[in-house]
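Service request form, structural biology core

Requester: graduate student, group of Dr. S.
Request type: structure prediction, single chain
Budget code: on file
Notes: please return the result as structure tokens.

Sequence provided:
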Amino acid sequence: MSTQHLRNLSPGADLRTPRPLLSPAAELGRSVRGTPLDRVEPRASRGARAELTGWTSYDPRFASDVLSGLSQPRKSIPPTWLYDQRGSQLFEAITELPEYYATRSEISLLRSCAGAIAARIGPDATVIEIGSGSSRKTPLLLGAVQRPYAYVPVDISGAFLMHSAALLRGRFPDLRIMPVVADFMRPVQLPHALRFAPASGRRLVFFPGSTIGNLEPDEAAACLARLGALCGPNGMIVLGVDENRDEETLLPAYNDAAGVTAAFDLNLLERINRELGGTFDVGAFRHEARYDRERHRIEMHLVSVREQSAEVLGRSFAFAQGETIHTENSYKFDRAAIDSIAKQAKLQRVADWREDRGRFAVHLLAPCA
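Core staff response, request fulfilled:
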């Protein structure tokens, strides 16, 4: 699939149109009244943000993470920010590539285990999906659960989330669908309407796609602890995990021949240009996927092809030739690693399913008694 084709995935939407911004102040200092730009309070008023930066129309958390990340000796930006609407569309295209085995493996597993999961959770369950994306895997669970009470998809990309929820309503017209725009790396506030759910109905938190692998092990444990709080003492978590550690199949999955993963990674710089007044020359960076054998993780980097500099919200950052921005990790947690992480989160594995080739697993976790 070509990247030109991908630009037409959302008809009528020009995803490269810059978001309206106020003109920057003529001279932007690195701080105002002693406040560094990378410590702007996320809840600061529009006026306060304008005083500090000269812009008001931006996500202050995005700004803080970018400014802070680019200020480090080893530059990095959290992978959360890869997923604006354009990035979410590109990622969905990645999941359909021949090199990217994970989605096909997980869907195959869910087809075989959804009935067993539904039997354990019981009727009238509320299904909460974390990082729902296009919700392509969700119907496999919803179709198996007896009389599901509600479906709550949670995703950071609001426009993409609402589009996916609308499509799912067409397939499950009688189901309560309650989208929540949120970052799962922070506590998620569920809809108040869930307090009317049947007392006998349990919560099933669905965390697919091996998104857990994007987190450092301690972050993964903290994330699972938050999900355990979401599902409650009687609920369960369905966790999809990529266990593949074979470089011959891993590296092509993150560096596909069509260049879709490269477009996904480079879109982060385009997003910074659109939303934070960035001046990145996107063509002067290239995508690179690496495998760290000791940590069992794929790393994605944006590599500067020459010595250069770029500004973000008026602040300048220098790049040496070959210097990188680390944009994502994808840990390949095996069964023992998941057990260890779950134990830290006060969860236990009650069942698991894995494909014949051993590349992907679906774990069913429950709070420890």
